Amino acid sequence: MHVTKKNEVRNLKGKKALILVLALVVSLVGSTAFSENDSLSVDFTFEIVQMNPCVTCGECMVADTQIWSEPGAPLVPYRSVTILLPQGAELEDIKVRHGQPIVQKGIELPWGQPPCIHGENLLKAGMNETIYGSDNMYPSEIFQVVGVEYLKGCAILNVNLFPVQYMPQSGAVRFYHEMTVKVQLGKGTKNKLYRGLASDKAEVASLVCNPDVLTTYEDVPAPLTTEEYIIITNDTMQSTFQTLRAWKSNFVINPTVYTVSWISSNYAGTDIQMKMRNLIIDKYTNNGCKYVLLGGDVAAVPYRGFYVSTGGYTDSDMLADMYFGHLDGSHNSDGDSNYGEITDGVDFYAEVAVGRAPCQSVTEAQNFVNKVIAYEQAAKPERVLLHQSRVSPGNSPDSRCLAYRSDDYIPGDIIIDYIYEENGTITKAVWIQYWAQNPLIVVHVGLGNTNCYLLNYEVGGTVTWYNSDVASLTNTFWPWHTSLSSLTGQIEANDCLGEAYVMDPDNGAIACLMNDNYAWYSMNNACMYSGEFIEMMIRAFFSDGEERLGDMLNKAKSYLASSAQCNSTYRWCFYEINLIGDPESPCLTEREQ
């Protein structure tokens, strides 16, 4: 366990075993042709490089792609592309053309394993004999239509492209260097959440492959009255949160505090959660709302539970504060008692950023407010802590992969502390020592439960960090903290570990982004599923410059929206990550009143 600069660890990645197979780097060509009449075309190119397929960490060295993983089936790369549709157009048909494929023979692609939760001991899946005993193309199609979603009123078509098809019996791979997605359009309607703000268009432009189509979206006047930041709390804590409102007024336009009781009396809805969401939709549409702080634990500010099922597990009441930020539709189109079902038309792109202050009393609310104000005024350190403990016996698969992948996005002038169980037992004293270095960010990897997670699993014995241990920290700067562990963000329970970190008035963290239920990974890759969301947080924070906590989480999730739409395990992970903290707080800026 030691402190090292980023460039000193590059050689570690080169030590992974190499298998010679076909690889791709995706580069988007900004060649978008749009006919006002009925069609839109977007060209994509793919380049062959060497790759390391799904060994050690399960990393496939393919830029901007993910691995399509079905148990027993070949692991193949895919790229989720986001294509902006013109305003007022609707999707009628899609065709994908490709150039002459390059064929390479003698390839053995490994096969996928079932998703599993941390600590679960599953038997590995064998190869699917039907697939591997055939020379039928896998996948059978080179694209998959995921669907049309809306971000800030702009229509985004999500499509998965498969530039590699595999013929298992003969070991041949077809690689498509060029693909063109052609979209047939029909006349549709303008989305009711479209505001036409320059900031909205900039956000959409940063996500889609063809931002030039934004010229088809009309400019509209900005709202006359703006409320960029709102706080929803109860009557008891209202006056305390007025202090935070006053502080925020120096940096955002007209922050406002609303109480649950006032919302209940002034907005329509079948329950208080729907009334709260209708308030947010109103303030977003008419008053320019960008950030929402839910100022209270679930007894003070209710949550909406979502239904999700994957891998033999079901949660019918998963706390999903995304309900209050993803504002298209109702998340319950069939009108039953379960929100978030596959058939419920769930909205996967957020209009506003949402965070929760899990306080239950005036004292706790005052502690939270004081902490946020002090944090925003503090100088921000240039240091990150990346932790690893094992998530399965023998460290198979290797859980160091999250550090290996995350540090690719961290600038070279940032000091990175790597503390790995593989290098020696991580004790509580070691954890306290590294937090005392005052990192900007802390990433934890390990098994967990509602009120604890493991700092160390096997090497030298198990070391468990509990809620009660947070008070023993001595850090004088509060980092934002995320964890690849199960249940540590279970806000609806009585004080999860994430709450303990944030609600400690002296030490701990300024915010936690953690899981409400089980974390998921693949036996091929310890960083698949839940780990990918953390990796995308680091990407959004450093590469995209999303320094505000709520914006960072929204951007991270947007990268995996397509995966969540078509895969139940990604959907589970998408729902369960919530922000415990203030969504508007900037994490790189030192604010002055």
Can you walk me through this structure?
The two termini are 40 Å apart. Strand 13 and strand 14 form a beta hairpin. This protein is 21% helix and 30% strand. The strands form nine sheets. Strands 1-23-22-24-28-29-31 form a seven-stranded mixed β-sheet, with helices on both faces. A four-stranded antiparallel β-sheet has the order 2-3-15-8, with no helix packed on it. Among the domains are: 7-216, Immunoglobulin-like, CATH 2.60.40; 373-544, Rossmann fold (3-Layer(aba) Sandwich), CATH 3.40.50.1460. Residues 1-31 and 51-61 have low confidence and may be disordered. The protein is of the alpha+beta class.
Strand % is: 25-35%
CATH class of the domain at 7-216 equals Mainly Beta
Using the CA coordinates, give the radius of gyration: 24 Å
Reported by name, the CATH topology of the domain at 7-216 is Immunoglobulin-like
First-to-last CA distance: 40 Å
Helical amount among residues, as a percent range? Answer: 10-25%
Please identify the structural class as seen in this structure.
alpha+beta
The dominant shape is: globular
Detail the poorly predicted runs: 1-31, 51-61
Biggest beta-sheet profile = 7 strands, mixed
Number of strands: 31
- Quickly count the helices: 14
CATH architecture of the domain at 7-216: Sandwich
The overall average pLDDT, rounded, is: 91
Strand order of the largest sheet: 1-23-22-24-28-29-31
